[in-house]
Queue: 2 jobs
Job 1
Amino acid sequence: MSRQVPTLEDVAREAGVSRATVSRVVNGVRNVDPAIQEVVRRAIERTGYAPNRAARSLVTRRTGTVALVVSGAGASSQEAQDAFAARVFADPFFGRVVAGVVGFLRPRSVHPVLMFAESAGARREVLAYLRQGRADGALVVSSHADDPLPALLAEAGLPAVLFARPFRPVPLSYVDLAHRDGGRLAAEHLLARGCRRVATICGPLAVPASQERLAGFRDTLARHGHPHVPVAEGGFTLDSGIAAMTDLLADHPDLDGVFAANDLMAQGACQVLRERNRRIPGDVAVVGFDDSTVAATCRPPLTTVRQPVEAMAADMARLLDEHVRGVRTEPTAVVFDPELVERDSA
Amino acid sequence: MSRQVPTLEDVAREAGVSRATVSRVVNGVRNVDPAIQEVVRRAIERTGYAPNRAARSLVTRRTGTVALVVSGAGASSQEAQDAFAARVFADPFFGRVVAGVVGFLRPRSVHPVLMFAESAGARREVLAYLRQGRADGALVVSSHADDPLPALLAEAGLPAVLFARPFRPVPLSYVDLAHRDGGRLAAEHLLARGCRRVATICGPLAVPASQERLAGFRDTLARHGHPHVPVAEGGFTLDSGIAAMTDLLADHPDLDGVFAANDLMAQGACQVLRERNRRIPGDVAVVGFDDSTVAATCRPPLTTVRQPVEAMAADMARLLDEHVRGVRTEPTAVVFDPELVERDSA
DNA sequence: GTGAAAGCGCTAACAT
DNA sequence: ATGTTAGCGCTTTCAC
């Protein structure tokens, strides 16, 4: 059938040296005569040798693989799982996480295996996967606020790094954004351009990040003499943004500024506003959050609070790498600063 | 540091049996006394044993992992790679592929490792990965028409299944859609609702699927007395849909129906139409393609030609599984039928 | 039905 | 600088 795969032994025989020597040149260990290196390299070429990773992993106890886990609230039917996966990918946020993670991992030849942990069973699978040594650690992105996975990972003593501070304290490293500052940035910008009747479409209040963006926004407005800010809660989706904006407009037809806690909801808000023939930013200024891909394609392009997701994700991978290599032992938090990106919507 | 992980040996000692017996119960092999099975199971419980996958893979020569490869045209800078990943995930199409693949794989405890192959170096990495036995096979989704990866995979004799028929024949299994029929469905629907001046925003003509959707659309119209159909080529993105619709409208201000070769471009078309105050479908009917997530959230919701991506992706995984297990040896093509989904836009 | 033992292909001491 | 050798933890004949 498929011909036998060459092993270290074969290469050694071909090159007339020992397995150990071949192993040394394959792994780039020094202490090998340059001339012999060349001979071995040629033998590798000729035989078409590729090191068997299972054998290597068995002795090194490392796989060069990390689990990229998308963790969420828990439906368990097949349709629900499909929907979960589709929803995750529909959010431009996740694509940026992957880009950042892969950007760090790829140069190091480590690969991400995609896992969904939206049910108790799926969480068990993630733990089993890690315990079987199939991956060196886990990168966890929770969509759900009170995700049980981080605690399980920590208890099991498995290397893991989280995107966003967990709801309840867990001895795990994480990267996060200074969400409160982000809310402040949005408020200051709206105020600076003269808005006086501003409202906000906040994210799910069960999510700490939503709470903080809202708090930063509110506090700043209060400090500038606007103690009462209409709030509509959304779910970080386009639809929820549409619904929230519709509600807000019904109760406060005279508003002149809106801060949406992510770009998707901001886009929904813009859609509603345009349908109602409100000019953006003339009649109503709109500020989003994230600076995701939709921010640029939205009509009009969104002024938004940028979250450097790619950089954050890359750092998450870096932290995990350090934990796995053992050069970092204590849980560490890295908090990034948001930045206002001005486009046309405000 | 982290306590020693229990091995088969430990469980065997704990249960008072041999390694072989423990292995048998772990792998569900029969010929084990039920009483002993129970003893072993308890020992596993007590020790918290989890089989080491590297060791198992070393002897079984199977990993329970498949590479999910997104293959594309070739930029090689870090930014280009980031952008590639972000773009891939921005397309709702890919999320559905993942959902379908995971739906099949998960019940079988096999996991997808995500790989991007947009450059020659990245392609080499994919081949090396497979040759090292780190994955049992590859599931390939090409965004680029003349992707060199399938041929490389076939030459190397590595198990692989493609999403969509490759540009030039390659001895690999693939799943695909009857795109031509999809184009026909769109044309028939537009005709049936009375449109007489229809145009189309086709996909990149370098992609076979685009060609076929266009051909099916054109042929059907021609057969009904409309030999000349204005065509604008897009790139399957929102922006390109906007540009194409703008052009079409400039040249043919009186058109009353548009078929866009995917939903993203249809959405762009709708945006332009609404800005121009054309009513949809009253003034201009719009038909999309894919029935992706944007179809439902578009304003108005899109009438579209459904491509059963999840089912196709699941079948792709099934074919690969069969090739890997050796129960299927010949390259096989599975072609799915499109279906018209009526919503509000046409 | 169960155990003994031979590898799977590799790395890493340890010798030389 | 290079070779020898002892495992890593598992599955799988082959005896019993």
Job 2
Amino acid sequence: MAEDDRRTIPEATVARLPIYLRTLADLAASDTATISSERLAELAGVNAAKVRKDLSHLGSYGTRGVGYDVEYLVYQMSRELGLTHDWPVVIAGAGNLGQALANYAGFGNRGFPVVAMVDTDRSKVGSRINGVPVRHLDELEDIVAEHGDIIAVLATPAGAAQDVADRMISAGVTSVLNFAPAVLNVPDHVWLRKVDLAVELQILSFYRQRHADATATATASAGNGEPAATGTG
Amino acid sequence: MAEDDRRTIPEATVARLPIYLRTLADLAASDTATISSERLAELAGVNAAKVRKDLSHLGSYGTRGVGYDVEYLVYQMSRELGLTHDWPVVIAGAGNLGQALANYAGFGNRGFPVVAMVDTDRSKVGSRINGVPVRHLDELEDIVAEHGDIIAVLATPAGAAQDVADRMISAGVTSVLNFAPAVLNVPDHVWLRKVDLAVELQILSFYRQRHADATATATASAGNGEPAATGTG
DNA sequence: GGTTGTGAACAAATTCACAGCG
DNA sequence: CGCTGTGAATTTGTTCACAACC
């Protein structure tokens, strides 16, 4: 079954694997050898049945009556997530957000070295941000040629995002993480994920607003729309 | 039906409303009076049936044979999302990411003014970043007292996130957007959303890896695991 | 004719509950 | 006896397809 499922790990599961991995890495660092689905669930903020089902998609790596071997799970999950080698990243847009991302230790540390930033602003091109060279957007093809299969992180203004994405893709990029507040159209062979800061705040605003409405109008009645939704995934 | 559904807009729909709203605001700015579900779907990157079902949760604001009135929809959606007034935001952590977020125009512009940053680093406290005062974490209670019901954006290191969240919550905060790479535990009455940059890259890495495996091992056979998943939600 | 609004069909994800194994 | 792994049940979300309406 495991071998079969290899081809069909559900999207929802894939989105949780990195959380498990981070949790497990912490456990390994604190010399925990084994962990139960119950405890891992607690640490990862999900429920135990979900953990077991998620992990079962990777294969049968647990021991009944005991739990999962932490080190081994870390190894298998890293392999599964393709984290056994680094993936070079190029950040498009050397504005505030782009610079922050270039400085963000979480990237390089976790196997995603930022090899370059690109921008069209000639006054920025040629400088370095946190050691990362800022190059002109026109050099994109060269950068891809130098580093191979890079991941593009878009931190441009909304208006420029589609153009830059198009150029990235025609230069050979197949993975894009979009921070620009714009909907991107990409061909089928390109993987796209998006992070929209304003959208997240607006979602919070919705639930908050709802709550205000509910408590204002009805001081009676039991609680309906409960909070504590953990979004993004 | 619409009145009934008011209380139960599906989570998946709520997560899309901000995208529709942004799209509609753009249309309004370019003097488009009416829009069909088909066209809105195209611009928002979803399918038309989904748009219609999503909008039906807000009420019957469309006209058969014609489409939706853009201005009116913008108004209704803003109201629904609680965007008719500003929601003050406090950013915890005046590091790279926190500073970038404070500088990020998308926040203040879209009704989420950053009223303060908090940090424990005395060398930062007292300064201003993009006009936003940096105050000490200990002043949190005062800030909440000054501005009322604020939204907390956590941009602290992972290790500090739970502590800061706890302090935010005991100061009265009920909405938290977490950028720290850590799983937070919050009480039931607090709304939590999270954005994890490294997680997003790892998800891209998974699909990319899969693709590499597939094309490497089998040069034959039709395409299975197709790309172009648009994540985050 | 064109487009919405929505039941019904379908698909994905979650949760339950327990057999099976260590 | 404890904990995994997984079928079955349930819930949630998506898509279809068409009647209702302008």
